[in-house]
Amino acid sequence: MRAGLVILLLIIAGVKLRAQDTTVVFVITDTLAADTSPWKLTGLSTFNFSQVSLNNWNGGGQSAISGTSLVNAKLTYTGKKTLFENTLNAAFGLQRLQKQGTVKTDDKLEFLTTYGREAFGKWYYTVSGSFRSQFAPGYNYPNDSTVISRFLAPGYVTFGLGLENKIRDCFTIFISPISAKYTIVQDDSLSAQGAFGVDPGKRLREEYGGSARIIFSCPLIENVNFATQMDLFSNYSKNPENVDVNWTTLISFKVNRFITTSISTSLVYDDDVIIKQDKNDDGILDVEGPRTQFKEVFNFGLQYKF
């Protein structure tokens, strides 16, 4: 919730402003000690803020305040025969409309850690773990009275044991025939509904199977960076053909020394997550089933390196 509190404080501070749109991007490229240190820290941090105030405006519209923050950081240790990588991806956004109140526009918390020992060639014996959830409660807007998600509802924890290949500095493949996936639902109401694939009344669902991860991060051309990560999981004991997919992509463009833009997308598919839809647009959720989830975020703003 710290990211949300920061954004709320900045929103309060900006109420007196009339109309503005500000974006600040921090890019981290540093080592923890000397240049010869085996530890390396890299990352990207952005903040976007916009505010519009309307009073007797003939063109219509609503006064609005919004803010979005993003952190993408990676800490790597490279030893003679050892590789240890930790990645944090977090995002949070809020928007307040004059007549509709405050709604959440973005919410993501992901952590990935891998530890590998040299096996042969560029292959490493690797153990990997990940955690994925969100910061704040989510609602099925415009209905803001019923919570459909919150921190650890769901929460996803995965473990895998296998082989990782550093084909190049920018291309990694991890294959794990021994994997576990845990779905956590720490909410009484959602647990009772059997949300996110847990049995009704339960707070934890265990799945065992195989997984794979593909990571590509490399400059495409000058001043254009491309990074993508796809995580796949198959449950050996139940519908192994229905593969869970979590695929994220980030493209950043450096316009000049001070201005940068970025486009990020997220695609998620899990056949255990049932999504309800209003097929007839009558306000009644009459169709439910697994759906492909997709999100896109575009940012434009200032860049600062240190």
Keywords:
mainly beta; single chain; disordered N terminus
How far do the termini sit from each other? 26 Å
- Write down how many β-strands occur, each being a DSSP E stretch of 2 or more residues: 17
Q: What Rg do the Cα atoms give?
A: 21 Å
Which class of secondary structure composition applies to the elements? mainly beta
| Widest sheet, order of strands | 1-2-3-4-5-6-9-10-11-12-13-14-17
- Average pLDDT, all residues: 82
| Biggest sheet statistics | 13 strands, mixed, barrel
Shape: flat
Unreliable runs: 1-21
Q: What's the total helix number?
A: 2
Q: DSSP strand (E) fraction?
A: over 45%
Which range best describes the helical content: under 10%, 10-25%, 25-40%, 40-55%, 55-70% or over 70%? under 10%
Helix-strand topology string: HEEEEEEEEEEHEEEEEEE
Oligomer: single chain
Overview of the structural elements:
The chain is mainly beta. It has helices spanning 2-13, 188-193; strands at 19-30, 39-52, 64-78, 82-97, 101-120, 123-133, 138-139, 147-149, 155-168, 171-184, 204-221, 224-235, 244-254, 259-269, 274-277, 287-290, 293-305. Strands 1-2-3-4-5-6-9-10-11-12-13-14-17 form a 13-stranded mixed beta barrel. It has a two-stranded antiparallel ribbon with strand order 7-8. The protein is flat, with a radius of gyration of 21 Å.
Quick description:
6% of the residues lie in helices and 63% in strands. It has helices spanning 2-13, 188-193, and strands at residues 19-30, 39-52, 64-78, 82-97, 101-120, 123-133, 138-139, 147-149, 155-168, 171-184, 204-221, 224-235, 244-254, 259-269, 274-277, 287-290, 293-305.
